[in-house]
Amino acid sequence: MNRILIILTLVLLAFAVTAFPQSATQTPSQRIVATVNGEEITQETLNTASQLSQIIQSLFNSHYLFVETLFTTEEGKSFIDRYQRTVLDRLIDNRLLIQQAKALEIPVDESQIDQQVTAQLNQIMQQNQLTLEQIDDILKQRGSSLEEYKADIANSVREQLLVQGLQAFITKDAGVTEDEITAYYNDHQSDYTDDSGTVSPLADVHDQIRDALLRQAKSKLWDDWFAKVKKEAKIEISL
């Protein structure tokens, strides 16, 4: 029993104690773990994204030894740190994309956001056999509300649509020439040869090759653009 209490204490400390000094009025969840062009990312945002607390809680009863090893060994602590950093890197990338989308005034269809919020709530009600009132009661017990939850969903959907719109805008000029399609076909004819040695004519695989090359072109255009954006960004990490 004492070992269980020790592990529980370690788990709690993992989310409550930081290695950096804080002001007297700053809670652990308010600690700034990164800034992206002056925009702050808090420990609370990182905790929400990583869902580490929920993961540990779900594993504690069924995989106690795993949790114990995770929090009482240097290897385990290093793994947690690495996981948190991976999640933070993704948050930073997403923040950069949202900033760029807003700067370019990428449009978002608000009616589409409303539709997706409604769809997600309906799915939750159907899967859990709950009414909106019951969902609201559950959320209030956790210090939130249905309206706050809907706002969170809407914000998440809005950001997804912004990134999708941004990607479409950045890659709109990607293209593939007929010469490139023909060259690819000639260089990869083995991919279009059946067991009898018959090679599919270019006309039969033309669109397939075009679509594949276009995806590659868009991916390269997007990756090159984002690498430049990230290189020019002012990013400070305090994790």
Shape label? extended
Strand content: 5-15%
List the quaternary state of the chains: single chain
Low-confidence blocks of residues: 16-24
Broad structural category: mainly alpha
- Rounded radius of gyration (Å): 24 Å
Indicate the mean pLDDT: 89
Distance between the termini: 33 Å
What does the largest sheet look like? 3 strands, antiparallel
Strand order of the largest sheet: 2-1-3
Name the helicity range: 55-70%
Q: How many independent structural domains?
A: 3
Question: What does this protein structure show overall?
Answer:
This protein has helices spanning 2-16, 43-50, 52-60, 64-72, 74-103, 110-128, 132-141, 146-170, 178-187, 202-232; strands at 32-36, 39-42, 235-237. It folds into three domains: 1-17 and 31-103, no CATH class; 107-170, no CATH class; 174-185 and 202-233. A three-stranded antiparallel beta sheet has the order 2-1-3. The longest helix is centred in the C-terminal third of the chain and has 31 residues, at 202-232. It is built from ten helices and three strands. It is extended. A hairpin with a 2-residue loop joins strand 1 and strand 2. The chain is mostly helical and 239 residues long.
Fold topology:
Elements: H1 2-16, E1 32-36, E2 39-42, H2 43-50, H3 52-60, H4 64-72, H5 74-103, H6 110-128, H7 132-141, H8 146-170, H9 178-187, H10 202-232, E3 235-237
Antiparallel strand pairs: 1-2, 1-3
Helix pairs in contact: 1-4, 2-5, 4-5, 5-8, 6-8, 9-10
Q: Key features?
A:
239 residues; mainly alpha; 3 domains; extended
Give a summary of the structure in a few sentences.
The protein has helices at 2-16, 43-50, 52-60, 64-72, 74-103, 110-128, 132-141, 146-170, 178-187, 202-232, and strands at 32-36, 39-42, 235-237. It is mainly α and 239 residues long. The model is unreliable at 16-24 (pLDDT under 50).
